[in-house]
Design a protein that fits this description.
- By secondary structure, the protein is mainly α.
- It is 77% helix and 0% strand.
- The protein has 13 helices and no strands.
- The longest helix is centred in the first third of the chain and has 27 residues.
């Protein structure tokens, strides 16, 4: 079942990226992140009360709470970087870099969690790495243009924090219902996101958000909630070195919708890179 939940996470995550891109088009990325997190928080706690796991909070160990909080902080940092990168960069360039967190997560899973490394996993890491590199290469004529490259650094920050999130989250949800763990982490993300909003003085921009942006922000929050619930359910029972790569297959959904919605097309190198990422990911299932 954890494989099905992992693929469910990938589907919702792919939809999230497109909806969020639409929602932050005319909205500050930090404000958008903070507002989306409110939706995710409501969604995740609804699931907690529906499943009746709220009473387990009193039985949670200090270690579990600490790792869930650290995981939430990493998630918040990853989100802030990711949506800032989406706002100023090409979604077909930002997403592959964000998904490269797969490689770092697999390495950390081998080192910290003691998950075994096999020849197939090693080859998969190489394919995913090479595929990511090909996808972020620009066409020669575009490369000559003077363009803001800050999106690249934000995307890299998103990948690093995302990998830390997976490892810390894996430790934090051991012996705890994954739905409850997700809800607790969301509280941390919400606090962190709003601190950033007030520190940067962007809270006054909320009144300027148009109805269309509100709609997409809400929908992206719901999609994120669905992705998280599936992801941490899969992570609870499945190996992180396999669950995380499957989740990153959301890139297929993102690329497909980015072509339909934003008319962002892949060149030959990017297409080859995408194929390598998919092949590398799917090989982990065997």
């Amino acid at each position: 079942m954890w494989i099905l939940f992992a693929f469910g996470s990938a589907l919702f995550a792919g939809i999230t990226a497109i909806l969020a891109k639409c929602g932050i088009k005319n909205t500050d990325s930090n404000v958008a992140t903070a507002l989306r997190t409110i939706i995710v928080l409501i969604f995740s706690w609804m699931m907690v009360f529906i499943s009746g796991t709220q009473s387990i909070i009193l039985d949670m160990s200090v270690k579990t709470l600490v790792f869930l909080i650290l995981s939430g902080i990493s998630t918040g940092a990853s989100w802030l970087c990711y949506f800032k990168a989406l706002q100023i960069g090409d979604i077909n360039k930002v997403t592959p870099i964000d998904k490269s967190s797969t490689i770092l997560t697999m390495v950390l899973a081998f080192i910290i969690l003691g998950e075994g490394i096999t020849l197939i996993k090693f080859i998969a890491m190489i394919l995913i790495g090479m595929g990511t590199y090909l996808m972020i290469q620009k066409k020669e004529e575009v490369r000559r243009e003077t363009k803001n490259r800050m999106w690249l650094w934000y995307a890299l920050g998103s990948a690093i924090f995302a990998s830390l999130t997976s490892i810390l989250g894996k430790v934090g949800i051991e012996g705890v219902d994954s739905t409850l763990g997700t809800a607790i982490r969301t509280i941390v993300v919400l606090i962190m996101a709003w601190i950033v909003v007030f520190v940067t003085g962007k809270q006054n921009t909320i009144k300027d958000i148009d109805k269309r942006s509100w709609l997409f922000l809400v929908l992206s929050g719901v999609a994120t909630g669905g992705s998280w619930l599936c992801y941490y359910r899969a992570l609870q029972t499945g190996p992180a070195s396999i669950v995380v790569p499957i989740d990153k297959l959301s890139i297929l959904v993102t690329v497909a919708f980015s072509y339909i919605v934003f008319n962002e097309k892949l060149n030959k190198k990017s297409t080859i890179g995408l194929i390598m990422i998919v092949v590398g990911t799917l090989s982990l299932l065997f």
